[in-house]
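Quick bug: TIR domain-containing protein output formatted oddly.
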Amino acid sequence: MLENRNSLSAGFCFTVLKMGHRLEEDKMKPRGGLKCCKLGIIFLLLTIISFVGPVSGFALKTCRISQNNAICVKSKLKAVPRDIPSTVTVFDLSENRISRIQAADFRDLPVLIRLDLNRNNISQIDSGAFANLISLQKLNLNNNRLVKLGENVFKGLSGLTELRILSNRMKEVASTSFKPLTSLQVLDISHNKLDSLEKVHLILQHLPHLGELVMKDNNLFAFRSWELTNRSLDLRAIDLSQNPIAVFTITEDIFPNLTRFNIGGSSRKQQMIWDVHNHTFLSRVSTLDISGLQMALGDMKTLLQRVNSSLTSLRMNAMKYNLAKLINMSCTIPTLSSLQLRYNKLKIVSSDLFKLCVNVTELDLTKSNIKAIDDNAFKSLRSLKILTLSSNRLPSVPAATRNLPALLELDLSNNNISSLQCHDFADQTKLRQLNLYRNSIPDLKDCLFKDLTQLQVLKLQSSHIRKLNGAFKRYLPNLTQLNLYGNELTAIKGGVFKSLRSLQNLSLHQNKITTLEKDSFVGLTNLTRIQLQSNNINKQQLDKDVFNTLINLRRLDLENNNIKYESSFALLNPPFSKLSRLEELSIPAQHYRNKHLLPRNFLQGLTNLLLFKVRNNQLVYLHKDTFSYTPKLQTLDISSNDLTDLPPELFFPIQNLKSLYISRASLHSLDIFIGANLTNLEFLQARNNLFSVIRKETIESLPALVYLDLQSNSFTCDCDNAWFLQWVKNDSRTQVFDAYNYTCNYPPVVEGTKLLDLDIRDCVVDTGFICFISTTCTILCFMMATFTYHFMRWQLVYAYYLFMAWLLDTKHKNKQAPHQYDAFISYNTHDEPWVIRELLPKLEGEQGWKLCLHHRDFEPGKPIIDNITDAIYGSRKTICVISRRYLDSEWCSKEIQAASFRLFDEQKDVLILVFLEEIPRYLLSPYHRMRKLLKRQTYLSWPQAGEHAEVFWQKLRQALKTKEDPDEDRFHLTLLETP
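Here's what came back:
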């Protein structure tokens, strides 16, 4: 045999790929196996780590997420939900039943900016409950049941800028409650029970940046500056109203920057004593509210004198005494420009009431029970720009309003005005806004607005107007907004608005309009929005091309009218064909008894349409080309229609769609979205349909979906919905609104149970877990094989070739091909000289046997193991020339193994053993099979040099001549002592 066959090695890491090929490496470094094992261990650890921590679900039990806002309003919550995503910035928990804020409630919301806990039952806040809200800026705790604030209640809120705790029951405040709020700017603790300034002092001493303090209605009976603080505060606004303050004393300038001051009185009949030592202490106050304050006239005068040099806005609402004198005193302040006198019982405004108010520019007399105003009542108000006379009892437009040459805004809304005359607004050429709504004005005269050349906003809603006449045909060239909704108009005649060339917003909804003429809106070339909802407009009105002149229209609202069609055939004159700039169109109805269709080209011309609403119209079908004219559509609402069968091609032209509403549409499946290419759809609301199964392909066809609402559908609770349930719980991108309340409708045995309670473990295969187990097993097997190879690599190689020998022996044992040779000679290369000089000449030269030798007769290029096997089975006998080197040779060992397989499997005498030298038994002990052969097979021993050589050759010749019958008697010839 060749020398390089004596030693072989094979690495396990390559055995799988190299099986069947001979490896010719002599040695393998002993450290190689250990390195492979170390890598296996590391890989195992990494694999285990990679499967830890599943993705949290996004199906919230009680809330919904909208643009990073968690909205849980009116959800009957008794505790703060813990399933809110950590990315929310606004958390609204108002109007629930939460009674306690626990330490872990907001632990995982590090980017929360605003938290609203208004209107709950909170009576306890655990220490450090807000400690993790490091980004919080606004906190609302209004309308709860807090009685006391503990030591660490606001711990961690160093970035909070606004805190509101009004309408609680607070009596006590711990000394360090507000200490963490170093950035607080606005604090509202109104309507509580803080009855002394010492408690307020505990709050203010830790708030260096507080700019606004609101603490009205807190049972404060006295205000003394030395009880509040011993230093100046940076407050710019303070509200102490509705407190029963009997004494107000300031001895130090503690409010040097105060600009807004509310000291309005309470409902208790108690006068306040005013004691401010220095007239400069409140010298910067610009806005003063003394509404309802009861104070001696002298003290009131002193108060007004303290703000004499800075006051611009004064509120004296609901004053019970000395109103006329207070008005005269306040109007002597040269800087006063705004005067609010609401809720006073004036009844009649006399001519001398405002005679000193020459600098006032804004006067508010709302809800002052005014029945009449003297014609000269406002004669002195030459600078007045805003006059509010709303919610009084005026029967007509007062003549006094015509004496205001600088007037810009006039509010006469909610009075008893029953008619308008042409002279009512005479000479008011500077007026910009006029409010006349909620009066009783049946019609408008043609000359009514003739002098209002600069008017921009006119509000005439809810005034029982039946006729417009020619009021808008000639005047109001600069009007931009006209509100006429909530009246009794029945028809819009041609040219009625033709002078309103600047109008942008026209509100005509909630009237009784049944007739629109072709030129109803002529002249409104700059109109961008028109509201016509809740009228009686029908399709015949649309057929008149009434909207063709509105070339700049952006929004058209036709909700709750009688627009219905009986055919989906194309219209000859589509109603909106000229509105190429229209962005929003709404035509929902309140209800229809009869089903109808939508013409296929109803939206023709709306190339820039972004929003289309056609809900509650009892549509039974939408043609596949309906939206082919609206390629930019982003929001579509087709809810509350009977759209049982929608063509899949319907959505093909609107690939920019982002929001889709298809609730109550009688749909049985969402498979219409498969292949629709709605890759931009983010919001899908499909409530109250007939969906039973949500398929994986449907969800995968909406890759941008972030909000899905499937409430009140007929879900099937079996394995058909297993994938959907798993997706709802584990997907972190799409929020499935109210998923925890979805109920089962089928099968009957689970009807009414919660869909997410369905046990799907028998339905789905946890591929992640299977991958984990299979990977772990693979790694463990890899490690075991590595250890085995490192310590037993030679045994593995031996076993491999032993198996190959058995396999090939089995393959050839039934072959009956004739033998090519009389004997195959198996020997080691070191014994080759004896074979060439001794064996070959005797057996082939003298005795005439045909022998097979590997160096002469093996087929070149053929695998060695195949050559060995073919030689053994192609020869009658196999002669093994055994020596010590023979026993050390791997390939020689394989040759004798193959021959022994043939011997035992075919049960034929085919093996002859020739010992060239004496071999002790202990050397043969590892070769158990050879020792068994010696006990039952023929073997010959080559004698010492020169001893009995002829006898040896004679016996060998005799062995070659013997038949292969296994029952033939064995013969033994030993010239030396046998092994």
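Actually, after a second look the formatting is fine. The two ends are 24 Å apart (CA to CA). Closing.
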